[in-house]
Specification:
The chain has 235 residues and is an alpha/beta fold. The protein has a single domain, classed as Carbamate kinase (3-Layer(aba) Sandwich), CATH 3.40.1160.10. The strands form two sheets. The protein has a nine-stranded mixed β-sheet with strand order 4-3-5-2-1-6-10-11-9, sandwiched between helices. Strand 1, helix 1 and strand 2 form a beta-alpha-beta unit. The longest helix is centred in the middle third of the chain and has 25 residues. The protein is globular and about 50 Å long. The two termini are 21 Å apart.
Length: 235
């Protein structure tokens, strides 16, 4: 087994499934089953999930919303997704704890590193919601921050593509996949795996990022048992 403690970043958009909006129950349950499987292997799991299936602050700002308020709405969207995932995991008898970067008890407990570390040591899956609690930061940056704080061995970025490519494989059929690539190369080639703040934080704190397709059931376990899927972005 390669990793003992992970930060799993999930895309809010992926939770839509084929619906185009909201939470697809089949996709949610697929995610929960994959997470339950690796929790049963004794891996400590922290999760950050986006909110783009409900509301994205940047998109809202483009439509005339105040960016500050739009980002706060996006943070609320991540809390909704976190509660949904916690519910699906608890249905599978997985102990979970939802932590929020903005005070909103009794919806979730207010995030702190000691609280998160205690929950991990009790083999609870922690779902850290509401981003960093501040506007102008993406959930990618929130994931980087939380991954560094909980001293994760790796950030697993579950997306709808199976790794990092030379170009967008959905637009360019000649794009080729990297098995591994350094943060410096990602920056110099202008590859958009995360925003620059998140990339810089991972690079400076030596937190590797493994990009893989979470929508293929079983891939999460494959990543954690050392099978060669996805792309490893390394310091």
């Amino acid at each position: 087994m390669q990793f003992k403690r992970i930060l799993l970043k999930l895309s809010g958009e992926s939770l839509m499934g084929d619906q185009g909006y909201g939470i697809d129950s089949q996709r949610l349950n697929d995610y929960a089953e994959q997470i339950a499987e690796i929790a049963g292997m004794g891996i400590q799991i922290g999760i950050v999930i986006g909110g783009g299936n409900i509301f994205r602050g940047l998109s809202g700002a483009a439509k005339g919303f105040d960016r500050y308020k739009g980002d706060q709405m996006g943070m609320m969207a991540t809390v909704i997704n976190s509660l949904a995932l916690a519910s699906a995991l608890e249905h599978l008898s997985v102990k979970t704890r939802v932590l929020t970067a903005i005070r909103m008890e009794p919806v979730g407990e207010f995030y702190s590193k000691p609280k998160a570390m205690e929950a991990l040591s009790n083999n609870e899956v922690i779902i850290m919601s509401a981003g960093t609690g501040n506007p102008y930061f993406t959930t990618d940056t929130g994931s980087s921050l939380r991954g560094i704080e909980i001293e994760a061995d790796v950030m697993l970025k579950g997306t709808r593509v199976d790794g990092v490519y030379t170009a967008d494989p959905e637009k360019d059929p000649t794009a080729t996949k990297y098995d591994s690539i350094s943060f410096d190369e990602v920056y110099n080639k202008g590859l958009k795996i995360m925003d620059l703040t998140a990339t810089a934080m991972c690079m400076e704190n030596k937190l590797p990022v493994l990009v893989f397709n979470m929508d293929v059931k079983g891939n999460l376990k494959k990543v954690l048992t050392g099978q060669k899927i996805g792309t490893l972005v390394h310091p």
